[in-house]
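Entry type: protein chain
Record version: 2
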Amino acid sequence: MSIRNTLLAAVFTIASFGVAHANGLRPIAAQSIDLGDVSGVAYYTVEPGGFRVVTTLAQGASGNPIRFVSVLAPGQRVVLSTPTHANAIEISRNGDTVLIRNTSAIAN
């Protein structure tokens, strides 16, 4: 089984645990991320040190997957973007809620 097929199987397995609420993402429920040529999924788990957010992205059908792991405390956020896509993905924690939303790319 190729890496891409393994990644897709994991995504469908994680997605079957639940769906995103209007208020935000539920623990273990995956949400799709699209940054143009780069796409993937994000989910989180609740841990003693904070909410562990795992984001897996790949470029196209044959790209190698890359995993980003962040631990968010209340009020923290992480922004994912690419140089060739006008929008970014913001993953934020507001209290006990994790939100994933498209936003304008933030220049550093």
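Comment: The radius of gyration is 14 Å.
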